[in-house]
Write the structure tokens for this entry.
Amino acid sequence: MAKVFERIDDKLREFISEQAMFFVGTAPSTGGHVNVSPKGYRDTFAVVDDTTVAYLDLYGSGAETIAHLRDNGRITIMFCSFDRKPRILRLHGSGRIVRPDDNGFASLRETFGDDHPGTRAIVVVEVERISDSCGWSVPSMELVEERSTLDDVHRTRKESDYARMVAGSNAESIDGLPALEPDHPVPSLPAPEPSPAR
């Protein structure tokens, strides 16, 4: 039986922390395409308080979520349990983008786990509705491992690669809505380690 919750309590926090992935749904205000994005890496999602959540937004092939949030702020986050106990949890709310050069980014960044080299921004969601449902038709599956592929690829990229993404595939949505601004900061790459002394 579906239930609506007033806040993200300890039991919901525990359920969220146990999930290996989540899904993000957004849409433009008028026309256009609805977007659903799967998100991995457990340490990229955080419950900030009882009605606020956030996640690390990593560079990818597009920037639909950012474009839609700039357009209207509407967002739904869905967690889906694939283990023996089925459950679906949806967080409906209003989202905003915190850029790496925005005030508050550094303190928010401390909320998350390991450093992910392709961090583009942090998405913060003020949750307005929290509900669950049975998930009885969702298959039961076992997690083998998290894929490191996205982090591995980002570690090989140069600042110029990210700059091309900001100006190209991440500049607007597939419907032409603006996404990343031209001055969006690209990830700073670590300085090369000095050669060992001989």
